[in-house]
Amino acid sequence: MELTWGEDFSILTEVAKSVFARCSPLTDRATTIDYKNHVQQFRDLDWLQLGDPAGLSSDSAALGSIAGIFVEMGRALVDTPLLDLTMSRDASIVIGTAKAVSLASRIGNGAASVMPVFPLSGWGRPLEIRNDVLSGTAMPVSFADQADGYLVLADDGGERALLLIDKTDAVRIESLPNIGEYPMFSVSFSNVAVTEEVVLARGLDADRAVEIAQQRSAVLRAAQVYGAGSRLLDITVRYAQDRHQFGGPIGRFQAVQYLCTDIAINVHLTSAYARSAALAIDSGSDPQLDVALMSKQASRTAQVMVHAAHEVHAGIGYMVESNVHLFTKAAKRWQFDFGSDEVHDHTISTVLDRAYSGEIS
Fold this sequence. Notes:
Elements: H1 9-21, H2 35-44, H3 63-76, H4 82-95, H5 98-108, E1 114-117, E2 127-130, E3 133-142, E4 149-156, E5 159-166, E6 170-175, E7 184-193, E8 199-202, H6 203-242, E9 244-245, E10 248-249, H7 254-283, H8 288-313, H9 324-337, H10 341-356
Parallel strand pairs: 1-4, 2-4
Antiparallel strand pairs: 2-3, 3-7, 4-5, 5-8, 6-7, 9-10
Helix pairs in contact: 1-3, 3-6, 4-5, 4-6, 6-7, 6-8, 6-9, 7-8, 8-9, 8-10
């Protein structure tokens, strides 16, 4: 079986390349696009409406095609709210009720900016509902200061509930300093009444919506890591060719070649696992194993690629004038976006045990 990206991957890649090239810090660090302009641009391109996580439409772009946007986003190292908005929209579509579909439509046409508040696999716990009241602090929440509301996964006496909470119900939104200088925040809620008006789903319906949204977003984040790693590999190989020491380019030394090879191997493995996971999701197969393998590899790639790049660049890689440190800042965040290795290892072993016992094929 040939592992390819989606049918429209190349088309979306070319469009995304021109979009993100204009706001890439690798080209001009003074160029910035604010949140509202990003959302406006994505709405005009119809990127907020791409994909059908419920699998009801054969005309929707495949996840493997949408990944092309995120590959180029990674290559340009541009921070945008597209992944977060896509995750909230995907979860709403999977729920499928009139209220949830209406929310998905408003996110898709740019009328609503709703950030997901879902705990990552192995990191953190859901907020808690006690006596129909939501209280607690969620972190990190991307672009929380710009959001209209939050799609919150909360624990209600052992049962999960997915809530749409208005931003005005957040008592405190605080910026979280981080090495990547990414817009991350803690959001605190206090005594928010949980009525049926704010509940989008409960129990298995809520769990399923969040699981599917997180699986799809993991593929898109892995595509972003692949794009960034490919660009960093190009930069590192070029530096190894241009930097002369001891009578020639440092790239002639095997030790340097090994480091470049480490980047290449991990980047290409991330691409292969991401394509496999996207294919499983797009074909309607159970993607648990593919997503776990991909997530573990993408997290490792985020670590390995910047470590090896710094080894090749040595001191200059830490200088502000160099672009290498920009990849390091982004990769440190991506490293933890996939959840913990322990959770992925457990998923992988469980699926393989079930396959070995004949429970699944």
